[in-house]
Structure formats: structure tokens, C-alpha cells
Design a protein that fits this description.
Length: 190
């Protein structure tokens, strides 16, 4: 991956076919994890009537949403009130579906942009209005990778960076670093 640069109201870079495939796979895995394998249930609502949206949310969501077993989902959707289980449950009940819908919508923007590269044969062009969804999605993917690797702070990231090449985790560490490079250069190009 080359650095992102600003060009004609967008940020652009050239990705290899392998990079497009890798990022597409990671974003698709994120969508699957967030949606529990049912991304179609988290489509943006057609109605803009707030009362209709509220009624839909109350009809779909359980009264006591459970906390997540997956550590990645716990990092992506942390307890708002870690010392008050009831308040955390209420917060999840009223906000989590919307947060999941937003993350999936952001991921769809990224997937659409990646598809437009024709497998890396065309430069990746991210219009200014799509930069924020890109950054949020890269952050979510990077959090997922960091959680799976056990990265909790700069020190644990440094320790993993010292892994020998034959360690099976070394590839994912390089993906973690690559995602950080993409975020950093995208922000710098703004």
C-alpha cells in the first residue's frame, strides 16, 4: 500500500490485488461478527419518523440484552456503566442496534470503494464524504485484530512486534501495523 494522498477533493492510494482481497475479507468478517451472520437485519431504516423508528426498535430488541461473550464485541460495544449491570443493559437496549447499524453501513461504504478498484487494478478513491466511514471501519477492524492478538497497550504491541517471522501471530501483527499505516496516512492526507 502506498500512502494516501489528497487529489481532487478525495483521498487516493493504490492497493495491490492482495491488499484489496485482504481488506475486503477483514471488513466482511467484521460485518458478520457485528450482525451475528445476519447483516440484512441491520439495514438503514426506510422511515425517518422518530416514533415509528422507536416502535420498531422496541419491537425487535429484547428487554434485557445480554453482554457479549466475544471479547472483540465487548471492545467494539463496551459497557457504558461497568459498575451498574442494569444501567448497562438499558443503555445497550436503546443504543446497540443503532450502533451496529451504523458500523455495518460504514463497512458497506468501504466494501463498495474496494469493489470499485476492480481487484486493485484501479486506484482507490475515497471521496471526502466517505473518509469518516472509512476511518471508523479501519478503527473497528484494527480493534478486532488487536483484541485477537491480545494488544491492550503500546507495551504489548511492542512485544508482539518482536515476534519471529515463523510465529503464526506475526502475520496478524503485520496486518495490525498495516491498518495503522492506512489510518495514519488517510488522516494526514486530509
Amino acid at each position: 500500500m502506498r500512502k494516501f494522498r489528497r487529489k481532487s477533493g478525495a483521498v487516493v492510494t493504490q492497493l495491490s490485488g492482495y491488499e484489496v482481497e485482504l481488506l475486503t475479507s477483514l471488513v466482511n468478517q467484521l460485518v458478520e461478527m457485528i450482525s451475528d451472520g445476519q447483516p440484512e437485519t441491520f439495514q438503514q431504516p426506510e422511515s425517518t419518523d422518530p416514533f415509528e423508528l422507536w416502535a420498531q426498535e422496541l419491537a425487535v430488541d429484547p428487554d434485557q440484552p445480554e453482554t457479549h461473550d466475544d471479547p472483540v464485541l465487548r471492545r467494539l460495544f463496551p459497557d457504558a456503566y461497568p459498575h451498574d449491570a442494569q444501567a448497562s443493559s438499558d443503555f445497550r437496549r436503546f443504543t446497540e442496534r443503532e450502533m451496529k447499524t451504523k458500523k455495518i453501513a460504514d463497512a458497506q461504504v468501504v466494501l463498495s470503494s474496494l469493489a470499485a478498484t476492480a481487484g486493485g487494478t484501479i486506484a482507490l478513491r475515497v471521496p471526502a464524504e466517505e473518509v469518516q466511514p472509512w476511518l471508523r471501519t479501519l478503527t473497528s477492524v484494527r480493534i478486532a485484530v488487536a483484541t485477537r492478538l491480545g494488544i491492550t497497550d503500546a507495551e504489548s504491541a511492542e512485544e508482539l512486534a518482536q515476534l519471529p517471522d515463523d510465529d503464526p501471530r506475526s502475520f496478524m501483527v503485520s496486518v495490525y501495523d498495516w491498518l495503522g499505516f492506512a489510518q495514519e496516512t488517510m488522516i494526514s492526507a486530509l
